[in-house]
UniProtKB/TrEMBL annotation:
Gene3D superfamilies xref list: alpha/beta hydrolase
Organism ancestry: Eukaryota, Metazoa, Chordata, Craniata, Vertebrata
Organism whose genome encodes this protein: Notiomystis cincta
A GO MF label: hydrolase activity
Protein name: Carboxymethylenebutenolidase homolog
Family (UniProt): Belongs to the dienelactone hydrolase family.
Residues covered by the Dienelactone hydrolase domain: 30-245
Cellular component, GO annotation: cytosol
Tagged with keyword Cytoplasm: yes
Predominant localisation class: cytoplasm
Keywords attached to this entry: Cytoplasm
Length: 245
């Protein structure tokens, strides 16, 4: 890891000034942000937030983008009321903080959300995407949840699930070439293990010059040379979902 005092550089980029087009709902014990597409749809995507939580405008922006592309998008509070990480927090406390928010222990909440999507929204095909902490959660869900059709893991923290590779569903992995917490050797190893153990379709893609969080944490206008890769990452995500949902 490039900087032990900064275990997760998720504050690279911008907090979008974005209000969202969806609404907040209560789904049993979980609060969630839901955005529906203009026309009725039987396809839905669960959006798993990063360490900054379900209310981050950047994540809602992506959820709304999914809705524009014909998906019912839901971003639940997978911290279930626990505080999200704040950029002003002391990074020395990060490891202790994240231990109480395990990306591999969201199955109960996912089951509640899937029931809501099926019963209340009429969803028949459901996929999942996630960023950073949420990207690790996607890998976990693709290993064990039979009800999700596909997943996109965006810069998911590989070391959380580095020994597990027998995916149940087609999964797309997005990484940035210059990601401080996910070194390229980890990505190479992931690809090798998937090649040996994975029986379903998968893609591992590295985007040149990009840092952690680039698909949802950078504004398109922050740096002209980044814009094509931000847009490509978002387009690849939508195309993958379209292929399998």
């Amino acid at each position: 890891m490039a900087n032990e005092s900064r275990p997760c550089p998720c504050d690279i980029g911008d907090r979008f000034d974005y209000g969202g087009r969806g609404r907040e709902v209560q789904v049993e014990h979980i609060k969630a942000y839901v955005c529906r597409p203009p026309a009725s749809s039987h396809r839905a995507v669960v959006v798993v937030h990063d360490i900054f939580g379900w209310q981050l405008p950047n994540t809602r922006y992506i959820a709304d983008m999914l809705a524009t592309n014909g998906y019912i998008a839901i971003c639940p509070d997978f911290f279930v009321g626990q505080e999200a990480w704040k950029p002003s927090n002391d990074w020395a406390s990060f490891d202790d903080w994240v231990k109480t928010r395990d990306a591999g222990k969201i199955d109960k909440e996912v089951d509640v959300v899937l029931k809501y999507l099926k019963d209340q929204c009429g969803a028949k095909k459901i996929g999942v995407i996630g960023f950073c902490w949420g990207g690790a959660a996607v890998q976990h869900l693709m290993l064990k949840n039979p009800h999700l059709k596909t997943g996109v893991s965006l810069y998911g923290v590989i070391r959380r699930f580095e020994d597990k590779h027998s995916l149940l569903h087609p999964t797309f992995f997005i990484f940035g070439e210059k990601d401080d917490i996910i070194p390229l050797e980890q990505v190479t190893l992931l690809e090798q293990k998937l090649k040996q153990n994975c029986k379903v379709d998968y893609v591992v893609k590295i985007y040149p010059g990009q840092t952690h969080g680039f698909v949802h944490r950078k504004r398109e206008d922050i740096n002209p040379q980044d814009k094509p890769f931000i847009e490509e990452g978002r387009k690849d995500m939508i195309n993958w979902l379209n292929k399998y949902l």
